[in-house]
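#struct-pred
JK: can someone run the complex with iron/sulfur cluster? inputs below
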Amino acid sequence: MADTLKLVKKISRLADGKRSLRFMEVCGTHTVAIFRSGIRQILPDNVELVSGPGCPVCVTCDEYIDKAIAYARRKNFVIATFGDMLKVPGSRSSLAAVSAEGADVRIVYSPLDAIKLAEENPHKQIIFLAVGFETTAPTAAATVIAARIRGVKNLFMLSAQKLVPPALKLLLNDAAVHVDGFLLPGHVAVVVGAKAFKFLATDFRIPSAIGGFEADEILSALVNLLEQVDSGRATVANEYRSVVTDDGNVAAQRVLAQVYAVADAEWRGMGVIPASGLRMRDEFAEFDIERVEPIEIERGGKKSACRCGDVLRGLINPTQCPLFGRACKPLHAIGPCMVSVEGVCAAWFKYGGSNFKW
Ligand code: SF4
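RT: done, structure tokens with the ligand placed:
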């Protein structure tokens, strides 16, 4: 507690007399940790925290959900997915809805569970929804390698995995986005290493700090960001040294590179970002459902009033979406940012209450 108070006082001292500052966290776990620990409420009025595109479910676009639904409707196909994908709305329906209509959609807790499912159901085609950032992508890659070694022929991936650094680059090149520094995602940094974010300082001269997930770790990272602003320098500070190294987890990077190549990817509300996704290499094409069994989806579904895209770019707070807390609530979510437990809108709804900082 003594350390926490010291950090809070230091933040106040560093922020005193400064213009308004906006720092963006780009990790859903950070978003939830910041709310849960009440950090927003103790920050000086001129320091604002905004959430960026840090929740993998939230940044997954409608088209991907539509494809998953189309596969789910096929006879003998089973969709294996993490639970928070179920209620994410596509352009016309959701996996939860097609499951209620009779499609076979199963919740798994790891991609490795999908191998077991495939082995237990040899006459069905199992599709794992590989959604996530650098943190989880190596596990999906390891699953593909394990499936090959075990001779599993009925397991496939529908991939929408994404890379965080190119998204940050896009935000910084977007004139509508105003950010004075980034609280960088600790989990992603464990895999990619601090050096993957060096471009923030060298190319954009924007302060950034890799942070852990305890309140004091987040506060330390914020102190560091304010010190950088104060001194007029920009660096990639590593405030999560217990687990993040400069090079990251090289073994995980190797597994990932063995199975996946970098490719362009579409992000919800941000469009196609060059080199921000992963595509299975040709050597593993037999596990890529889109190449084994391509599917056509109907385009141009109903236009939603959901403003997740603006929320994910830090342009608005969730409460500025007219549907927030009215038509859109966790039990009746209109957009993915309210569905996922790490979604920004869900966090504002759950922890904001009367303490919303406008
Ligand atoms: S409150 Fe709901 S509708 Fe509005 S941006 Fe968030 S998820 Fe979308």
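RT: quick notes.
The radius of gyration is 21 Å.
The pocket of iron/sulfur cluster is lined by residues 306-308, 311, 318, 321, 323-324, 328, 334-335, 337-338, 345 (CB under 6 Å).
JK: thanks, will look after standup
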